[in-house]
Amino acid sequence: MRSWLSKNAIFVALAVECLVLAVATDAFFTVDNLSNVLRQNAFTAILAAGMTFVILTAGIDLSVGSIVGLSGMICADVLVRGHGLAAGVAVGLLVGLGVGVVNGLVITKVKIPPFIVTLAMMQVVRGAAFKYTDARTISGLPVSFAMLSESLPTFGITAAAFVLAWLVLTRTPFGRHVYATGGNPEAAWLSGIRVKRLLFAVYALCGATAGLAGVLVASRLSAGYPRAGEFYELDAIAAVVVGGTSLFGGRGSIWGTLAGAFFIGILNNGLNLFRVSTYDQMIVKGAVLLAAASLDRWRASS
Amino acid sequence: MTLLASTNLSKSYAGVRVLDAVDFDVRAGEIHALLGENGAGKSTLIKILTGAVVPDTGDVTLDAGRLPIGDPLAVRRAGLSVVYQEFTLAPELTVAENVFLGRERAGIFLHVLPFLHRAEMNRAAQAVLDELGIHVAATTIVRGLSVAHQQMVEIARALVSDAKLLVLDEPSATLSHVEVDRLFAVLRRLRDRGLGIVYISHRLEEIFALADRVTVLRDGRTVASAPAAGLDRTALIRWMVGRDVSEEFPARHQSPGAVVLEARGLAAPPRFSDVSLTVREGEIVGLAGLVGAGRTSTALALAGALPAKGDVRVNGQPVHFTSPADAIAHGVVYVTEDRKAQGLFPLMGVDANITVTYLSMFARAGVLSLARERTAAAAAAREYDVRATTLTQPVATLSGGNQQKVLLARYMLKRPTLVVLDEPTRGVDVGARAEIYGLMNRLTAEGLAIVMISSDLPEVLGMSDRVIVMREGRTTGELTRAEATPERVMALAMAG
């Protein structure tokens, strides 16, 4: 019983949270409110999906927020130049993938710790996003693009991303090897896992999901905004940790991440509905993250 | 004179009786060996003595004073010290600093600032080392010391705490023969000084060489406790295992086939500089030598885990492995000597640990068939007699012997050409050891080639068809099974 609770803590917490809010206020369980929650948190959730892979290998990617900005900018630019929706989205994804590839290469070839590499890239990429238009916002995007971030498409894209991530993590050798590499990198290497290739792929993947999130954010804003995605990496990491994935690698689940993202999102939503100030919300967010990390340590030691 | 007396010690975990009314006593000036298979209750007994575990019933007295059960610090202060297999030293500090760790001699400067009496501690630590006959300077940084010397530092630490009783848990597992002899000399000196020593080991020759008395535990009970003189191997094994297990190594009827591996001039300085060996189908080649001779490094190089120069051919084809994945793809696998840190995935179950290397076998179009994987893992676990309640249980809960079998099952899932086994029976009890030897025989009869690294001379002599000896990074000689004697092997391992 205790081990079931330990493994499924976040789902139970999420259920309890929804229940409490549904009972405490009429404003929560409405189509309007719930679709708002979905649209607002989809970006974090998608970022967190890619981040889950990285954190499972005991790594971290601090550059995803900046990638959201850069990929959104370049996607918007492509659209404004009239190249069509598909091109814009594809380019956005490729930008994210490109940054992820750079991250992966530097981490595996130059062997600098992921924290430092992605921290540096966070700066570089954000700088590039500003430089792209000399800090000007790109507007005048086609209406069809803005429709991508409507409730249904958002739901579809998020669901597809998570189902795909789940399939890869639990039903492919690659996914199993991600868990193994995080759990014991030495043993992974000796047991025949091509660790360098795996880590490279994981960071490339994370960058690509950030590119996807960047495209969606640009769609929501209906603009290429150089500061888009600022601090999103922190929300993504929080979602992953609250969702039960250990920062030390080797343990966690993609559905936990989804639950974690929405746990935090719904918490914010609830606090909004009760008119709690933004600043208090920040404090609550931090406290939740701390509680989740403590739970993780307790789980690891028992 | 009885130093330590424990009566009626019992302990259960979740309804399972781990210790059942155990009496255990140690006299001053005695080396008392504690024997038992994994799961017999040895470690629980030691944990009770050292204060890490509180027994359900029973009492322990040390030197006529009640031992503060459940309080490790108090137990240590009362005079009972333990040297575990995993050392508790701080590698970046000096020997003296480690010896006095937690008991630093300090004074108060000007009534305000505490400061360390460094010179005094250095002197005291050196005195203890000299007394034990260990030629190490107290100011040496521990990281630079050999495993054997680090162990001595642990012992010195115990002595400085005025230990009356010293418990050593498998101390010889990582030592070469020469170092074991030195350890024994130290232990005998301590015994003659009046210390009581509890010595835990799986190595029966050591028990006969060192112990004054022997206690055997089995299934949580004391099965026998007697003076060592007049005991024989068979009796000990029967007590430990409850049945007659021939500790002789299984007979080998080898008929080696074609050469599967040929290495010439293999070098990875400074670890090893000139290694040449050939291995045939169906053969067990023992790789002997002192700790530090470069055997594991050679194995890692063969397995692609260590970059090395030289000529290596597998089945006649020249190869150059850049990673273990590469080597495995060519049929050369390496089973690590360090199961816990480098072999197993502690967060994963037994089944996942078995299938990890050849996982792609169970994938069609990139997607895993979990059912096929589970079936294969179950079959492998049966074939290698891995004893686990369920296959999804965390692999860390298995005994050492079963963990070793999991590793074997993993690499044999797709039969390789050559396996390098590094210390395959280290930390494994007698029963499981016999099973592993049996497995090695069966696999070689089916054509597998094995290179076995072992610091256990009887094992090397008992299982190898040929013995290759290394010393300081070079192969110094090769002996056939008929030619190999302990003296010849040691001569090659140590000759100047």
Describe what this molecule looks like in 3D:
The complex is a heterodimer of chains A (302) and B (496). With 302 residues, chain A is mostly helical. Chain A has 13 helices and no strands. In chain A, helix 3 packs antiparallel against helix 4 and helix 11 packs across helix 13. The mean pLDDT of chain A is 94. Chain B is built from 17 helices and 24 strands. Chain B is of the alpha/beta class. At the A-B interface, helix 8 and helix 9 of A face helix 10, helix 11 and strand 20 of B.
Classification by helices and strands of chain A:
mainly alpha
User: Could you tell me the radius of gyration of chain B in angstroms?
Assistant: 24 Å
Q: What letter string, H or E per element, gives the SSE order of chain A?
A: HHHHHHHHHHHHH
- In one word, what is the shape of chain B? globular
- Strand portion of chain A: under 5%
Count the DSSP helices of chain A. Answer: 13
Poorly predicted regions of chain A are: none
Global outline of chain A = globular
The strand order across the widest sheet of chain B is: 6-9-10-3-11-12
Largest interface: A-B, 21 and 29 residues
Overall number of strands of chain B? 24
Name the beta content range of chain B: 25-35%
Give the oligomer, counting copies of the same chain as homo and different chains as hetero.
heterodimer
Distance separating the two termini of chain B = 46 Å
Helix count of chain B?
17
Task: Please name the defining characteristics of this protein.
heterodimer; A: 302 residues; mainly alpha; B: 496 residues; 6-stranded mixed beta sheet; 17 helices
Secondary-structure topology with pairs:
The complex is a heterodimer of chains A (302) and B (496).
Chain A: H1 2-24, H2 31-56, H3 64-80, H4 85-110, H5 114-132, H6 143-146, H7 151-171, H8 173-183, H9 185-190, H10 195-221, H11 232-242, H12 254-273, H13 278-301
Helix pairs in contact in A: 1-12, 2-7, 2-10, 2-11, 2-12, 3-4, 3-5, 3-10, 4-5, 4-10, 7-8, 8-10, 11-12, 11-13, 12-13
Chain B: E1 2-13, E2 16-27, E3 30-35, H1 42-49, E4 57-62, E5 65-66, H2 72-78, E6 80-83, H3 95-99, E7 106-109, E8 113-116, H4 118-131, H5 147-160, E9 165-169, H6 177-192, E10 196-200, H7 204-210, E11 213-218, E12 221-227, H8 233-241, E13 259-268, E14 272-280, E15 284-288, H9 295-302, E16 309-314, E17 317-318, H10 324-329, E18 332-335, H11 339-343, H12 350-355, E19 363-364, E20 367-368, H13 370-383, H14 400-412, E21 418-422, H15 430-445, E22 449-453, H16 457-463, E23 466-471, E24 474-480, H17 486-494
Parallel strand pairs in B: 3-10, 3-11, 6-9, 9-10, 15-22, 15-23, 18-21, 21-22
Antiparallel strand pairs in B: 1-2, 1-4, 4-5, 7-8, 11-12, 13-14, 13-16, 16-17, 19-20, 23-24
